[in-house]
Design a protein that fits this description.
Blueprint lengths: L6 H23 L2 E2 L2 E3 L22 E7 L6 E11 L8 E6 L6 E10 L5 E6 L5 E4 L1 E8 L9 E2 L9 E4 L1 E3 L2 E2 L4 E3 L3 E2 L1 E10 L6 E5 L4 E8 L10 E2 L4 E7 L6 E7 L9 E8 L2 E9 L1 E2 L6 E7 L15 E11 L19 H21 L12
Antiparallel strand pairs: 1-18, 2-16, 3-9, 3-11, 4-7, 4-8, 4-16, 5-6, 5-9, 10-15, 11-14, 12-13, 16-17, 17-21, 18-20, 19-26, 20-26, 21-25, 22-23, 22-26, 24-25
Length: about 375
Amino acid sequence: MKRTTATLPVIVVLAFILVLSSVQNAFAAAYVPSPSELQYDDSDWDLGKGSTGESVGTGGYLGVRFSLPAPWSSGRLVTARYMVANDEYAYAFRVHVYDSDGSTELCCSPHLDVTPSAGGWVDVDLRAINVVVPGVFWIALECLHDYRPYLRFQSTGGKIDDRSYRIESTGQGGHFPDWVQQTVKDYGIRAVVEAGVDSSTGAGFVSFDTGGSGLESLSAVSMATPPEAGNLVFPYGFFSFTIEVTNPGDSAVVTLKLPSNAPVGTQYWKYGPTPTDPTDHWYQLPIGDDDGDNVITITLTDNGLGDDILTGEGDGQIVDQGGPGVPVAPVAPTTTPTYAAIPEYPLGLILLALLIPVVYGVIKRKARPPATRISTRES
């Protein structure tokens, strides 16, 4: 069939729309809110073993292998979640978080045991422990009682992700060395993580909570200390990241969790243009939650204060580059104690002054007349 030239523009336009749509979808997928919940189950729970769920003997393990969202190279594990069956739930289990190898412990020393108070989701809050996880990590449950508690799982009604594993117990609290992949079920274990990065100064891990806004391309950068910052030091260096807001012109509140407390008076300094000065320059952003702990907040506005790209209308993205500076504690001046001056005299005069009373006493004793002795003997 002969193709008319009129159909060619239509085909080109359709192809362009498809390409543009795929690019937009890929770009949007790169933005992930922080914190985010990672899950591989579909909440379509099977009854499973014993009409309750899955379990292993004492010393056995059930675990799930997680991958952080594509834009993140590392993160902080905020919560480990376990879906415990309603039957016979009140049995303690041990929480484990492993590195990508499935064996190197990332939490908790010496160990963390949890006893559910009810069936359903058991949320283990790990914020105080500061568990930093790599791009691939594991969360596991170790049974401390024989086949108790039961963990819910999914084997029908959804896609199986092949991320669930178990290690069988050998009895007496021992276990076999290797994980066995479960290809027909997804265990009810989830992870709540927040984005973060190691500081450029080596001071520790800094996490970012974007309050529901998408986060992309977070990195730690080294920059010279801004001369305008005065008596400040930047112990964590600086950070560069991009945030996607819901609507053009929206603001995002970003919470930074630092590896150590930030003293009251901490300032956030940023490099870039502002609505009142379109040239790149250092300027200060107001800080919220400035109460002396390790948490500070900053507010960034698309096409406004805190955004490096000022388009006049807003593009739904906020590009930021900056970091927190802390005031240097003033050094108390050192004083040298003063003492009353002691007059300096020749040593001979000092010795002479000491000898005069002694010589006078000797002379006086020799000049005294002898005493008259009176006898009291009767004749």
